[in-house]
Amino acid sequence: MKKPNQLNNYSAPIVILLLIALLSAGCAALEEAQQRKQERTRRQQQERYMTFELPNTEIEASSDSLTLTSEHYTFTFADDLLTHADYDEPEERQNMGKGALLFMESLYNYVHDIFGFEPKHQLMVNLRQTHHGSTNLATTSTRTQTIYQNGEWLKVVEGIEMDFPVAMFNQRDVRAHELTHAFTNIYLLPTWFAEGIAVLVQVEYARGKSHRRLGLYEELKTDLDGRNAVQYWKGHLSADQLTQWRYSYSYSIVAELKKRFGEDFYPTLFRLIEADQLHQRLPGEMTTSFLVYYLSQAAGQDLIPFFRELKFQVQKLTKSEILSTIMQANQEYLGR
Questions:
Q1: Of 28, 39, 84, 273, which is most buried with the most CB atoms under 10 A?
Q2: Which residue, 314, 319, 311, is CA-closest to 273?
Q3: Residue 159: is its pLDDT beyond 60?
Q4: What's the domain range around 152?
């Protein structure tokens, strides 16, 4: 028979092992529950996209039905459609416009559910035969004005406009892509991130097929200075042989962060940016370093090493450094 002190010597490690096992099981169960919740949220959003609840909205049309309005949109038929056989009569335009706005209102609610915020402005939607001479180019532009208020300069969004050739408007996933821009462009994001988010919604929620996930390391491309070739991308207006890769690679970064940090990662990111409103006060364009400052907060860990591994030219910023840069820019302007 073992003596009491021998039993105690054995029992302590056993208790510790049991506690470790229980904690491990608890962590595994919590992680599994979070994964189930994320999968359930994703499935519900996808199902909603396929069924689209009929929105409760009134639609008004002008006397010639060239312009129709709903709760969140003003929909306009461009002049180059007036000779189109499908849109040359007011009744045809009214029927098409009402159906389009019902769908767009449903899509608006859908994208709002993903991100948890919405633009403050009525969205302008222009339907055209061609846009910039092309039938396969849809764009979303954000009009901003810089104003002087309370001793500093602020960038203020004045309007958001989406332009679609008919052929592009007829593709649901393209509408989802452009509407995502209408939502997220209010934060004046770097182009690569804005396009990555838009493709994420287009592919993973709206089930578009035009872009694929790339290997972040295996398919990385750099410019002549050794920087990631998406970092200083200017978007569709600077199209070249890497354009398709840039869309797909930007999407791949955004998708990887969502995979690592969950469905709430991007809603959390935008809540943080919205709370500070520092994006309005930045001199010049938003930099990737500024964006990573918020991405790291949303992730709960420093993401500078992740972006440096991907050959982004970034530096770790503090809020005081950001505020100091803003203050210096305002002082320089006032000193002129």
A1: 273
A2: 319
A3: yes
A4: 45-334
- Name the β-bridge partners of 139: 163
**Average pLDDT, integer, range 178-194:** 95
Q: How many domains does the chain have?
A: 1
- The Cα–Cα gap between 163 and 127 comes to 6
CATH number where 320 lies: 1.10.390.10
Alpha helix stretches (DSSP H) within the chain: 4-51, 90-115, 166-169, 172-184, 191-200, 243-261, 265-276, 288-299, 304-309, 319-334
221 within some domain = yes
* Beta bridge partner(s), residue 142: 160
Interatomic CA distance for residues 246 and 314, integer angstroms: 18
C-alpha span between 131 and 149 (Å, rounded): 36
The dihedral over CA atoms of 85, 168, 135, 247, expressed in degrees to the nearest 10, equals 180
Rounded CA separation 250/237 (Å): 16
Radius of gyration of the chain (CA): 25
Q: Is 29 part of a structural domain of the chain?
A: no
| Token representation of residue 143 | 């009009």
Q: Is the pTM of this model over 0.85?
A: no
pLDDT tens by residue, 279-326? 999 888 899 999 999 999 999 999 999 999 999 999 999 999 999 988
Rounded Cα gap, residues 329 and 153, in angstroms: 9
Each residue's pLDDT tens digit, 216-240: 999 999 999 999 999 999 987 677 8
Provide the mean pLDDT of the chain: 87
